[in-house]
Amino acid sequence: MVKTHKLFCLLISLFLVASCATGGRKISTQLRSDVSAGNYSQALASLEASEFFKNNEESRLLYLMEKGLILHRLGHYGLSIKTFEEAKTLARKQYTVRYSKKLKTYIGNESSDIYYGEKYELSTLFYYQALNHFLLSYKDKIDEQKVEEGGELTLVWKDLNANERRQELFRARAELLAWDSFLKDLKNERSGEAIFKNDLAAKVLGGRIHETIGGSKDLEIAYQLYKDAHDLLIKNYNAYLSFNLKSKEFIKDFDKFPKLGIKKVEKDYVSSTNHQKDLRAYLEGKILGLSKVLRSRTWKRETSRLGISTKTFKPIGLGNVSVVIEEGIIPAKVPSKQFFGLGDSLAKESPALAIILGSFAADVLGLQPPGRYHRSIVGDAVGTVAITQAAISFELPDIEKRPIAGTLILEVWSKESKVKEVIVPLVNPMGDIAEQAVVEQSVWLYPKLGARLATKHVIAIMAAYATYKAFKEKNEFLAKSGAVLQYVASSKGIEASEQADTRQWTTIPASIRMTELSLVPGTYKLKVRVDGKENSTKSIGQVIVENKKKKYFIQKKLNL
Asked: Cα(356)–Cα(386) distance, rounded to whole angstroms?
């Protein structure tokens, strides 16, 4: 009995580590509120004041990602670049120690581990880094922080000349190369699985950046990127419900596709949504437009091989106004209750022990199986049934369900007249991608976490049983009461120490949309609306086109 108590105390001291999950959820909720309201200065203040990030070095990467994006939203692109670069460096460093650090989560919960970042989050780092440099290529000033006497940090502005702005455009291109390298490694690592392993934003934004740089070499790269995006949409992004109504079937039979061929896959496993049709039309228009410029003699034959009809789609040339619309905020990662059976953990001790502890758990502790199980056996076997069918509850992370808004229309107004409108196609459904990442994680997390929790509960039951035996002869009622109270206290401690790890990069958008258009010199007001949705029109500002050769870039975050 003494040994059991010592074992119990030792393991409980290891197991019942104070969880950092609650603090992480609190700051996440605050940041979501601040960013959703467009109060980015308050979001930065909330982040810097957070005790969770001050006391939780394991979440350093998350802190840097949140800070980098908030600085980006504030228009502090130079500071955002520095912060994201630090995040990228840390992410690479953490990857090398990942497996040794992961061992600690076999004792403590997932929230006690280093936050490594989801694959799509790491890719999004490159997206914003490329975007930061691209935006700076349009700016006249860049922000910097200088250290004054006494260690104070002061925000200052540095003038940029035309050559420096051009250099920022080349830095954006360099960031695209680093992004491509990251995605190639990711694709090799996750080959053959219907999970996130490439990024449409890298292709579409990359195509736009290379087109903006210009020159035959960069136009060739842009042309290839749009073709890659077209291929990626069909082969990988059909795994997301926003693009494919048959996404579940697509994922389920993904390993069969190499034998079926692309036409068979599209026929049997793809039911295109309007989002897919819109994006496909845009990409095929870009491919047609660039092929006419680069392949003046063979463009019809080349696009025909890609299955692009010149009758259905019109070529899209290089527009002088680029638009990126980032919708809302990514759905929150939340805890979801799961159940795990205790049977295997007890049966491993010994069949006899399982019967004894099972009977004790059923008759004294009142440990019941979940509602879907029914006890139908009486006598000594009741304990065995209860303990083999009983399930303990625990949390796994889940993503809130929130559908993306419908087709988005960009309206161009000159004075009081609407002169043009174009669709802004969905490029990245971040909510869908995040949901898939959570499902992927749960596949390996459920058995590990369930087994760990079952072990904790078995130890708690054994300790309660030892208490019961010690006092049973003296007073049956006190023995039962003490055992029950001890187990309840242990269970509460276990539950508190095992909250789901719901850490996520919470300030990234729910979706990313991109388009471009050509405008003659003039002053224009820009508005967007959700097609078919009344009272959804929102103004996104104005653009003054000085001449058709000059390029303009507009990025807006909206709650649609």
From this structure: 11
